[in-house]
Amino acid sequence: MASEITTPTTQSLTDDYNIDNIKKSNVVVESEYSKVKPYQCTVCLKDFSQNSKLARHMRTHTGEKPHQCSECDKAFSQRSVLVIHMRTHTGEKPYKCLECLKDFKQKSNLVSHMRTHTGDKPHQCSVCPKAFYTSHDLISHERIHTGERPYRCPECLRDFTQKSNLVSHMKTHTGDKPYHCSVCLKDFKSRDYLVPHMRTHTGEKPYQCSECLKEFRHNANLVTHMRIHTGAKPFKCSVCLKEFRQKANLVTHLRIHTGEKPYQCPVCFKGFALKSSLVKHSRVHTRVRPHLCSLCLKDFTSKDSLATHMVIHTGETLHQCSMCVKKFKKQSNLERHMRRHNTVPSILKNFR
């Protein structure tokens, strides 16, 4: 009798086949499949491996934000971004640095922070030698070279290089100061202002100069101070090409060329280029004389007036400006002052 021919069942095939080989083949298939991107965005033509990824991407074009925060009115295009945002309400910081034990809301922030310990700065500026820990810091820095200020205040139309600067600035219009000092109850627009302020109470100065060991409360002050050692003057006047260590000094200097006097006396309406000049002038009206001679106890409205008076006691020679009769102890200070008159002193008038 002819032998019976049987067809193997699906179950028997599965039993006979090595399950490990099935797993390995699945990995290969998935890997190969991930390279295939059959779903294309009709707006920007970007390709995606999965329809769900395309759907999520389309929200960048439509502006759709289906994921709503239950605590505030913010909405997000992706659920993962909502999860991160919720930590601003809960205070949760699940990512911890094993070096300094600092906590972070996002894993990406921890990765960037770790570079402060390793010294790794993988993001290099293409214009100058500066390098940065994060691509975000590099993008912000490059705007110094390009002049780009993409964030505009809708109230006063002032432009900013960083979104965080715009957010802080907007509080000058709203008057919002949600951060409170627990010691003196002073209010601040942002945590970035509150943290340095707290150091005035604690005396903490965490930023130290590696050259002279001088300590500072603010990192920005250390950066500015370091230019004394390096001689760097990165802020140049576009009119006379004079260079400055600080941007604030350049802004003040430019008023020599523009004639701008933004500080006005509320009593007599006289205008001043410097806030400090307005403060000194206001003492004419208030009769406040905070500068006291330690020898004869005579008081003066300004430090300059006191210095001039001290010559009576010391016999020291002063240098007088021929344009406004202001007096200086050092000739170099007079020469620097004379540049405000947009000239070089031809005669240095000394007197006793």
TrEMBL record:
Gene3D superfamilies: Classic Zinc Finger (3.30.160.60). Keywords: Metal-binding, Nucleus, Repeat, Zinc, Zinc-finger. Its main location: nucleus. The keyword Ligase does not apply. One of its GO terms (molecular function) is chromatin binding. One of its GO terms (cellular component) is nucleus. InterPro entries: Znf_C2H2_sf, Znf_C2H2_type. Residues 39-66, 67-94, 95-122, 123-150, 151-178, 179-206, 207-234, 235-262, 263-290, 291-318, 319-341 form the C2H2-type domain. It is found in: Nucleus. Belongs to the krueppel C2H2-type zinc-finger protein family. This is C2H2-type domain-containing protein.
